[in-house]
Write a structure and sequence with these properties.
Elements (H helix, E strand, L loop, with lengths): L4 E6 L8 E5 L8 E6 L2 E10 L28 H14 L3 H6 L16 E4 L9 H13 L1 E3 H8 L3 H9 L3 E4 L19 H16 L2 E6 L5 H13 L4 E5 L6 H12 L3 E4 L5 H12 L5 E4 L11 E7 L7 E2 L5 E2 H12 L2 E6 L4 H8 L4 E5 L10 E6 L13 H12 L3 E5 L8 E4 L16 E3 L4 E3 L6 E3 L13 E4 L3 H11 L5 E4 L7 H12 L5 E4 L12 E6 L13 H13 L10 E6 L5 H7 L3 H14 L6 E10 L2 H14 L7 E13 L2 E11 L4 H10 L8 E6 L6
Parallel strand pairs: 8-15, 8-16, 9-11, 9-12, 10-11, 12-15, 17-27, 18-25, 18-26, 24-25, 26-27
Antiparallel strand pairs: 1-2, 1-4, 3-4, 5-6, 5-7, 13-14, 19-23, 20-21, 21-22, 28-30, 28-31, 29-30
Helix pairs in contact: 1-10, 3-14
Length: about 725
């Protein structure tokens, strides 16, 4: 009797090795199969094959359940498997978790539920509410959408959709409106001389299979450059991936992409329905979709013939996944491009320090754009010294700022007030005994959000009603709000400037991409005088009438003991400043600060970008910090504080690292308790080119940790909380 073939199957679970199964025939590596695992049925991938995969008794090996998905064999591309293996090794995450990022079980089990699709009736005459406008904005971008997808993206209810049908605003159908298959690749863009020169640099990077940075000031036309690059790759019949840092920006960017490539753009992010994700996943695998615009998870899609990866706003911290499988999507995009021997384009007005150093060392090429696309000048930047500034009566805002806002409104132009702090007040204390209002699950303050009348922890998400009592003295009427949040700014500006129409541009007020799109539409139609925004406002938006930006509490982050604090502060202040004057000629930025002479603010004020990055590289080099060294953060956590201290001390005593690799710690993490877990932190620092992961694995393997202890490994950490 012929023995069945043995296969090792990798499953999308938190395990670092494949399991052995049998099959009546040999299957190619990468084939997706269904197997039985611990009383469950899971889909996995054939990882290796042959008798060498196990020494177990053949009679005890389970057969696979099925090797076909529907009528076909489905296989992941070999380059994707290689990429997943590299991600697992580099970031020290279980191989199964890396695979989990690539597909879900639901992709292979099609449900027969009837779907209802909606299109917009352009002839409707009904009055539109704000929530209905969100739906209309979505359908202007997508033409046709399924009901659940509208709800998931916009956050509106079924009742609103029903009302729009009754009012003849929406048309209902049981079939999806098919789109044209041919990609529209004609371009009629007249590039400037500077853009043409930059395009030549990018074309050279294609031939050399290198990373190219489009380093352009805000409003210089970076998007048009990488769209032209994408067009050239699509003409070769290949696929293109364009990564964006924030899901909330996707809809606005999709308008740009769809105007160029019509309806052949696939979007990928967590806001999509499961059915849509499944369809798009297969369309990419079958090369029916050739251009994908996606968030960081799009990097794990099964592209069959990828020809270009673009990472827009490459400096953005959103590319770093901080929970579950911890990885940096920008770095992995560069790695995947290198494995495929294709070009990778990075785009930013404020590149990361690592990227800048790679430009200096000539590992990456640089396409510079130093002029704005519309011929407008960069805004004039000045500081308001808050130590000397005259204040409005009973106000914390300077008179100069308020007078500026009045003048801008008189000219029928728009202003932006920026404060990177959500909520009403970051700190609440009891006026009777001085005890602060803390999160019960974290060593962190609860932030008051007046719009929801709730306190919220910005680390774990815990919420509770605002009518709380002091945990110490139990008084209920002595809670004092201190510090400034964006809601408090809105309240104060409403008091001082009641005639100005305002909008709060923050994730708490604009929770979905649809609501962001509706807000952007109001701003661009000049229905808003004053925008009050957090960092969400800094991410790539273009406001034609915006000529004034006021930045509050600019000192926040300047004195933080974090190696990336200066970099992040410079980037966000530069990006926010760049929202002003992108169409109109004259624009101003006023920075409220208690340290107007700080070198970072002076670099920003005098447009000394090169000087800032050179100074930052000098500091990093002298202190042996990235990009001149390797850094890995290890968080050891447990609900048992005594056990945590014991295990951390034992790990510290082992220290079997080579002489050029430093073990720093343990110390309490800045947030010493999170989600009920006490936390201690190690930092491991080594030379730039050392295999630091190998040393860390050897170190952790030398001590068997009890099951009550958790280990979180963060390779190339971005934050140190």
């Amino acid at each position: 009797m012929k023995h069945p073939h043995l296969l090792s199957v990798l499953l999308p679970i938190n395990i670092n090795y494949p399991f052995t199964y049998s099959c009546s025939e040999a299957l190619e590596i990468g084939t997706i199969v269904k197997v039985s695992f611990r009383n469950r049925e899971l889909y996995g991938v054939v990882w290796t094959q042959g008798e060498h995969v196990t020494n177990f008794d053949r009679e005890k090996i389970k057969p696979i359940i099925t090797k076909k998905i529907g009528d076909d064999y489905i296989s992941l591309p070999a380059d994707l498997l290689s990429f997943l293996n590299w991600v697992s090794t580099y970031y020290m995450v279980p191989l199964g978790l890396a695979l989990k990022a690539s597909f879900k079980k639901q992709f292979f089990e099609k449900k027969g539920k009837k779907k209802i699709y909606y299109t917009l009736n352009p002839l409707h005459t009904s009055k539109i509410t704000q929530k209905q406008e969100t739906v209309i904005e979505l359908l202007r971008v997508h033409d046709t959408l399924e009901r659940n997808r509208i709800i998931s993206i916009s956050g509106i209810s079924n009742d609103i959709i029903r009302r729009m049908i009754r009012n003849d605003i929406l048309k209902e159908s049981e079939s999806f409106v098919e789109v044209e298959e041919k990609i529209y690749l004609e371009t009629n863009i007249d590039f400037t001389t500077e853009q043409n020169y930059a395009m030549e640099k990018i074309s050279t990077s294609f031939k050399q299979q290198k990373v190219a940075l489009i380093d352009g000031i805000t409003g210089s036309g970076k998007t048009e450059l990488y769209l032209e690059a994408a067009t050239r790759i699509l003409r070769q019949g290949k696929q293109v991936l364009i990564m964006l840092p924030e899901i909330t920006l996707t809809q606005e960017f999709l308008k740009i992409f769809r105007s160029r490539f019509k309806n052949q753009v696939g979007e990928w992010h967590s806001g999509l329905s499961e059915a849509r994700r499944r369809q798009l996943w297969f369309d990419i695998l079958n090369k029916k979709i050739r251009l994908v615009v996606g968030a960081r998870s799009s990097l794990f899609l099964p592209f069959i013939d990828l020809g270009l990866i673009v990472v827009d706003e490459e400096h953005d911290p959103s590319y770093k996944q901080e929970e579950g499988m911890i990885y940096n999507a920008r770095d992995m995009a560069i790695l995947r491009a290198k494995q495929l021997k294709i070009a990778c384009i990075l785009s930013s007005a404020t590149p990361s320090v690592e990227t800048f150093e790679n430009i200096v060392s000539k590992k990456y090429s640089r396409a510079a754009l130093d002029k704005r696309f519309y011929g407008t000048k960069l805004p004039t930047i000045s500081c308001i010294d808050m130590r000397k500034a005259e204040k409005e009566t009973d106000s914390f805002l300077p008179v100069e700022l308020i007078e500026d806002l009045k003048k801008i409104k008189e000219r029928n132009e728009q202003s932006l007030i920026f404060l990177n702090r959500r909520g009403y007040s970051p700190l609440s204390i009891c006026g009777n005994c001085g005890v602060r209002v803390d999160c019960p699950d974290c060593d962190a303050w609860l932030v008051l959000h007046k719009n929801t009348l709730k306190y919220k922890c910005h680390h774990c998400g815990h919420t509770q009603k605002s009518d709380i009592k002091c945990k110490n003295c139990h008084s209920s009427d002595k809670i004092i709000q201190t510090g400034l949040g964006i809601e408090k700014i809105d309240e104060e500006l409403n008091r001082l400037l009641p005639d100005m129409s305002r909008i709060i541009f923050s994730s708490d007020y604009l929770p979905s991409s649809g609501s962001v799109s509706a807000a952007l539409r109001q701003i661009k139609e000049n229905k808003i005088d004053l925008i009050i925004g957090t960092q969400l406002i800094s991410k790539g938006h273009n406001f034609p009438s915006l000529t004034y930006v006021g930045i509050l509490d600019a000192d926040f982050g300047l004195e933080v003991t974090d190696i990336r604090a200066s970099e992040r502060t410079y980037q966000i202040l530069n990006q926010v400043s760049g929202r002003a004057g992108r169409v109109k000629q004259e624009s101003k930025v006023k920075i409220m600060t208690h340290m107007p002479d700080h070198p970072l603010l002076q670099s920003l004020k005098n447009n000394q970008k090169q000087e800032f990055y050179n100074a930052e590289l000098t500091i990093r080099n002298s202190s042996r910090m990235p990009p001149f060294a390797r850094l890995v953060a290890i968080i050891v956590s447990s609900k048992n504080k005594r056990l945590l201290n014991e295990c951390s001390q034992k790990l510290a005593l082992i220290n079997n690292f080579p002489k050029d690799v430093e073990l720093l710690g343990p110390i309490e993490a800045p947030i010493s308790r999170m989600r009920q877990y006490y936390r201690q932190r190690f930092l491991i620092r080594g030379p730039k080119n050392c295999n630091i992961q190998l040393y860390i694995k050897r170190w952790l393997d030398s001590f068997k940790l009890p099951p009550q202890i958790r280990i979180t490994i963060d390779v190339d950490p971005q934050n140190f909380l």
